[in-house]
Amino acid sequence: MNDTVTYMLAVRGLCCGRSERAVQRILEALPGVHRAHVSAAAARAVVDADPAAITSSVLTAELAAAGYPARLESL
Question: What pLDDT was estimated at residue 2?
Fold first, then answer.
């Protein structure tokens, strides 16, 4: 059985509900991501994921490639 960790990511470029939904779709499409909650007001994404399947580096790289630079705030 795999554990689940929660990654908190600071995400730049979030301005509205449309960008929230775009970032949520990007994150939830990644293998190993169980759930993502994105808030433009907080400029943050909270991601529940399987740490054996995905790392914070992959999450931030995927967001950066889509035009949303991000950095890990905490686990």
Answer: 61
Q: Tell me the C-alpha to C-alpha distance, in Å, between residue 65 and each of 2, 30, 37, 56, 62.
A: 28, 13, 19, 14, 5
Query: pLDDT at residue 75 above 70?
Result: no
For residue 38, the domain's CATH number is: 3.30.70.100
H-state helical runs in the chain? 17-28, 56-65
Q: Edge to edge, what strands does the sheet with 5-11 contain?
A: 33-39, 44-49, 5-11, 70-74
- Tell me the per-residue pLDDT of 5-49, one tens digit each, with 9 for 90 and over: 999 999 999 999 999 999 999 999 999 999 999 999 999 999 999
Provide the number of structural domains found in the chain.
Answer: 1
Query: Domain range spanning residue 45?
Result: 5-74
**Whose CA is closest to 36, among 2, 73, 5, 69?**
5
